[in-house]
Amino acid sequence: MNDTVSWLGLALSLLLVAVAAGISWWQRLGLQRQILIAAARALAQLLLVGAALTLVISPGRAIWWSWLWVAAMLGYAATVARRRAPEVPHLLGLALASFAAAAVVTLGVLFGLHVFPLTGRTLVPIAGMMVGNSMTATVLAGRRLTDELRDKRDEVEARLALGQPSRQAATPYVRAALHAALTPQIETTKATGLVFLPGAMTGLILAGAAPLQAVLVQAVVMFLVLAATATTTAVIALGLVRRLFTADHRLVYLPAPAGR
Amino acid sequence: MAFGFERVSVVRAGRRVLDEITGWIPAAGITVVAGPSGAGKTTLLRLCNRLEIPDAGTVSYRGQPLDELDPLALRRRVGMVFQRPTPFPGSVADNLAVAHPEAGAGEMDAALKRVALDPGLLGQEARTLSGGELQRMCLARTLVTQPETLLLDEPTSALDEQPKRAFEQTARELAARGITIIWVTHDAAQADRIADRIYHLRDGHLTGAPKEEARP
User: Fold this and answer.
1) Which CATH number fits domain B3-207: 3.40.30.10, 3.30.470.20, 3.10.310.40, 3.40.50.300?
2) Which has the minimum average pLDDT: A34-43, A48-57, A66-75, B188-197?
3) For residue A159, which residues of chain B lie inside 8 Å, CB to CB?
4) Which of A154, A249, A250 sits opposite B82 (nearest CB)?
5) Which residue of B has its CA nearest to A154?
6) What is the distance in angstroms between the Cα of A173 and the nearest Cα belonging to chain B?
7) Which residue of A has its CA nearest to B12?
8) Which of A160, A163, A172 lies at the smallest CB-CB distance from B145?
9) Which residues of A sit within 8 Å Cβ distance of B?
10) Cβ <8 Å between A157 and B138
11) Nearest-CA distance from A89 to chain B in Å?
12) Which of A93-102, A251-260, B160-169 shows the lowest per-residue confidence on average (mean pLDDT)?
């Protein structure tokens, strides 16, 4: 790990931000200010997180600090999911439950079977990958299922009117939502290595790790993300069905989201 | 008596869609509930199938309050056809199978014949049928669950004159075979053509229906 970036290197890389801002100025996009603010904000956030991570995962620090970090990430991700998809009812609680389920599955396999040693250094980044990807999938699945049930209300109620239980009546729409939420991840997984070099691998190679080692880590991370998105979307979809139908098999009223 | 309503009210978005309705609908022939759009006709039918529940009052079916009945069993006894046809993806046979997964070819043929559809359509993609055929398929789909009562929510409002008359004829035949039909419509001429009795719903109030259950 000798190919580190110096503070001078970081300062020089700001030239790249200047290039982006320069293009905005040249083409009169009016985005210069936004670009500079975004870059400054990202840098400040990363430095803060870096400082906090240094504290949390430094050698000798108790592992429960890392678990606390993971719990905070889960909570924050759930609030972000709710903010991004306000039209999905009860999303905060459902997202928390689904992230927790995905954490049990993925961290259980990776640490329970000793694929990685359980340390702060492994736990925090792996949980971060899991939560970040799960959050996107949660928003996709929750939004799609709510849209389907609202837009196809006539069809859903026709199924209910034939005496189908709500869970059965919802099945085609649950499948459509899971399909929509999982397909991008499957496509990404397929194209890995051919079309793009994913972040974890790139980072490891830049930091001086042997390419084969970087590939192995990346493969594990991809499988982790695949399992995490499948678990979270399934929990979200089945949980939503329970919330969007009453105990006596009626579909609750679903208002159209604002702006449509 | 099929359905009884006792001081039934439904409030939606601050508006009284049904306002303390009391009345009885007999378990025979075709009862038409007529009234202008927005009078609460659809809501009345949805209460009967328990797709909605009232905010106040009691709806009963054959003497039993609906909230004491299993909603899934009730919906198989009381079928409903909606205003707009609601085909499911797949063939006509796939649609009938949603209602009755164990139905054999013979039962499906018979269901289509009862609504005057050619059994040769079973393999056809449902969404390629004409409007009139689609609405008949929806009726056949409901009939394969062998309901005692049919709720028809303006089922011919999107149909031309000829398929509309054909649908009316089919309904008359079903009523003659002992299926109780409750048909809501805003079409007064249609109400006169098909009804054994007509009740009126206007501004959330039901008129014409007997207030007391008839004693034999």
Assistant:
1) 3.40.50.300
2) A48-57
3) 88, 98
4) A154
5) B86
6) 12
7) A253
8) A163
9) 154-155, 157-165, 172, 248-251
10) no
11) 19
12) A251-260
Distance separating alpha carbons of residues A241 and A175, to the nearest angstrom: 12
| Single-letter code of the amino acid located at B125 | E
Amino acid at B54: P
Q: HEC states along chain A?
A: CCCCCCHHHHHHHHHHHHHHHHHHHHCCCCCHHHHHHHHHHHHHHHHHHHHHHHHHHCCCCCHHHHHHHHHHHHHHHHHHHHHHCCCCCCHHHHHHHHHHHHHHHHHHHHHHCCCCCCCHHHHHHHHHHHHHHHHHHHHHHHHHHHHHHHHCHHHHHHHHHCCCCHHHHHHHHHHHHHHHHHHHHHHHHHHECCCECCHHHHHHHHCCCCHHHHHHHHHHHHHHHHHHHHHHHHHHHHHHHHHHECCCCCECCCCCCCCC
* Inter-chain touch B142–A248, beta carbons under 8 Å: no
Q: What is the pLDDT of residue A257?
A: 80
CB B122 within 8 A of CB B128: no
Q: What is the pTM of this model?
A: 0.86
Q: How far apart are alpha carbons A195 and A200 in whole angstroms? A: 15
